[in-house]
């Protein structure tokens, strides 16, 4: 390792800022803060003040936009707000204040009127509903919400002005009638309404929709009316009209924008355009049609219609029938969800009506409206003009307002002075709000009204609220004094707290929290020679010395910030540092930076600067790129001015660097934004070795290689006698050009970036030592491994026998280094060089160490580089003792297979197996018994001898002449390895380490030839729906016919060949007995019972039965290796005795899964609900009971777990049987971590047991496991 180089390169690493802040946007609907740190008192608090409109928004709890819009509409209704403030809460009468909806609504309205916050929360109000937190995330309908709240208020405020307003002024009456066409009999009834649902589909505007609402419907055909006058079913007219004697003060119209589409059976939203007027005259809606009045008068039953005419006349002569629009509730979205907002108009007395504004309430945001906003609420998706006839009065009013207004663009009193010019303000808002694009545009510009068009709709008006224009009942003023005194005091206290906290927050957001760095270079003007001699104090790390956190207010000067940075870095006594300004005015002041350094009395050396003046003369602050490690522009502006007055003031998370010069005679380093900043490291070589000097920040004035060379020579003093070297990845290159260095661009040609390192080589001829050293360091990697352990006597004997030229004495005489666990090598070296490095580090005998992959097999090609073996960049390997293998040698896994007919070919256990038997038990027939090493050209007979020797050492003697070697596919056997072939030729695919070779023992020797097939027979028992877990295996020629295969199968089953039914199955069928039962080949035809007939009759019945599922009947002379059989070695043929009765035809299978149930329909609607106090108490009691049950269950479970742990035996070493299992897992390729996890899961001592596994790696087991 080259001294100084790693430290120089490590100095380039960016340090993580030690301070952490969270920044959340503040604006419309914001609930977070700017600069609020996590865990501080500013977190989750909105410091937005009340908007310039003078109104406060409501915070959305999750999906409560519908509630916010409704509440703002109620607040903007002065009649309701005043009556709510006049209502008095009585705990004896109304119960707990937290559960009283009227009181919580009163508190909320008091906050909306008096608070200085930009938005207030509705959580206390929804808590009075009896809601939990989850219910605030369910969106409801605003009309449904209004109905439930008004009903609850009417029950709570009985006998008060609030109750009167809810019951009388918010509700009206509508008359329904049925007029018989036969006798003229009139039947009338009345109904009270709080809101009117107005169908909009098919109507051009609101007036037409209301006329359609009251238009009579003819009852005829199957819907005839059973008239009491005629005493028979007659055609009749069904209609309704508004009762002029009971018109509400506040008229709420709900536009029916949601319906159910019978074609798609889904809910849908109607986006039809529906213009609505600002003035609505109800006079035409107070009486039935004239023809109905005349017909009733002729029949002498028109008393109800006469009363309606009188009420209409009285209403027109009294308060009037004209209503003014003041609220538009909007819905944006689709039929199953969206967002609610509201356009609301200030309701003022007639003398102040010209100053009324239209405002947009969108949760936390409140703003004045533009003309286009209200027009876009009409709905529709096309550009269309407003109906001029419907808004002529509004257009005239707008013209009058504009003529009277001195400045159309000026903001009203209390509004933000920076309001956008041209926006509708003041009295003009009333006309702008509802003027169409045609009328309003024509009035403003003098153009043709019909030529004006509105943009495509983005929102849809969902509910319209009108107030009756009445001189007797003008909108009452609601002064601040109307708010109950107790609530005034409560809100004022909250305002004081908010103002104080906001003042502190405003101060806090101006605090700069960042890190300051001290460059560690010795040969740059920013790090003087005197600083290089300073050693870290006791307990101080180099990282802390190079950087430190710093915090100061933006009002401090650049000089103060410089001294604070020097104190933070330990260059000056902190007592000399000025006030950092991190405490707000009036709070306890903090002097200097945080106490990260020991007091001066405990320091081992004096401070670098003894006074403030010396520090300011030799230090200055610069911006710092911590990622590249280079200093950037110095702080601009005058040193005595506040930092906030600078063109680019310091900001949080933007690091700074303290630049220090040796003396006042040294000029500050010049800075240019266009110049390239690189780090220069000079190579030094002497008798003590080779090293690099600390990095120097070098400014290259122009973008050319020649300029870089001149600057480097000036900085090092090596004029014309050096080479420049740079690193690109793991390659080092000398910077030079044959065509002239003036034309070589540093950025474009050489791809140099700010902060890149350039190394100076003082030699000019021959191979560059800098290139050699840089590449050696760049390619230096660490290979780690577990330390080698001494060999046992048995292991040493095996290794000596396997490694030529190595004796047991050599192995016993080893003095292994038990601490060696890694080596450092060049990743360009070969595997052979890595082996020698490992043998040298561990002091193992040469030629006896095998380098293995972690959890895998050996890396064998010693001529390939480490990258070929996946060790690029270092890594971890596993070491084993033994002769290293060549690339032509492979490690094969030996697996012993137990045949079902072992010892008695063709025999089957008496009776069918149990239903539990299946393919799952087939896996237990394979037993892994270790590994053997063989060459790819090893003949198969020789491989059998190697395997026999291996099994003999494992106490499983097998005669090689009675051994059959097979391949394995999953849990099934495949083709056999023929004796006439080599290992590579006998296997069906490429040979790799870990390839399994299955050993199958035979009762006698055999000689398979080319073309022989090994077919596995599995017996199906139809009565029990059970498949034998294993069956006999037969060797046949590839030319065997269907008839010959049936005869062989019959011999195995002991039944006549004509009764044998066969079917070829796939691997997945063997794991699913339902698939076997449903094979067409195994289904009996009706009337084909072999029991009633003889064997020959059964054979005849089976003669035309298909043998293969889904295929045609193969001929008896069909070859099994061809279509439709296409059998291969290892194929499975399921057979059964065709004479058995199939009792489970079309068996569905125990493990079959039913088809997933499907259902249609739309999302279930969740009803809006307000719980009474009694219901809330019952819900809380039920919740507490469930919580108690959960706690008791958890305590019982913990007690049982503790009891189980106390009764668990201590961890110990496993017995011989368990140890064999762990050894086989490790030898079978399971990683060390996997084996340790298995040991731990079975309750054994992890460390000691694994050590035993390593000591007994040659242990194998002959058990069935």
UniProtKB/TrEMBL annotation:
Domain USP, chain residue ranges per copy: 56-397
GO biological process, one term: protein deubiquitination
Biased composition (Basic and acidic residues): 1176-1193
Coiled-coil spans in chain: none
GO cellular component: cytosol; nucleus
Any one GO molecular function term: cysteine-type deubiquitinase activity
Compositional bias ranges of the Low complexity kind: 405-423, 902-922
Pfam families assigned: UCH
Protein name in UniProt: USP domain-containing protein
Taxonomic superkingdom: Eukaryota
Region (Disordered): 393-423, 579-607, 901-922, 1174-1193
InterPro entries: Papain-like_cys_pep_sf, Peptidase_C19, Peptidase_C19_UCH, USP, USP_CS
